[in-house]
Amino acid sequence: MLHIKQDNILEIEADALVLTFDGENAASHRGADFVTGNLASAFRDRWPEAWPLIEEAVHPDRGLVPCGDIVSLELPEGSCAFGGVVLASTLRHRGDRSHGTMTGIVASAVERAVRAARENGWKSVASTPMKGGPRLDVKSAFLAMVQGYRKAAKALAPGVPDLVVCDSRAEGFAVIDAAWKRILKGAGG
Q: How many Cα atoms within 13 Å fall on the side-chain side of residue 96?
């Protein structure tokens, strides 16, 4: 099931957390130059002991991670509040991407994140709206995430992991709440 919450995502209960990064930029994988989204930076600051494992999982020696693809990683117990992370390559710091391309990248990353959650035995995976940096507005990002989740749910039913989309900002949450209510109304529920 898909859930939305207005909360600090680092404080919610979920088995895994989605962190975004630029998987196509080899320079983004080098130490301090590891280009991540705001959530990944907050995660690194809060749980620095888990961060080297994340950097290793996407080290350039392992190959680049194309946009829309993911790397999932179980984390040692006690290293952070989550049992694992899904590193989603949705940030693109070189070149331009159209709106349609970016929504496709986000939908693909969410579908793959939910599949990875199932493969890892995680019952829930949490993410903020994946805007691809400043490239998508909150509503477009959320709708792309819904599209990716629905595709995964259709393929994995029954037993699809939950997706929790969380935005701590009142204005961001209001946008996803309104979009989610419109979706539910249109689905008769």
A: 2
- Say how many Å lie between the first and final Cα of the chain, rounded: 13
Domain of residue 144, residue span: 2-186
User: What is the distance between the alpha carbons of residues 106 and 88, in angstroms, rounded to a whole number?
Assistant: 9
For residue 112, which of 18, 26, 5 has the smallest C-alpha distance? 18
111-170: per-residue pLDDT in tens?
999 999 999 999 999 999 988 766 789 999 999 999 999 999 999 888 899 999 999 999
What CATH number is associated with residue 18? 3.40.220.10
Nearest-CA neighbor of 151 among 114, 126, 179? 114
Give CA separation, 164 vs 83, 112, 142, 149, in Å.
15, 15, 11, 10
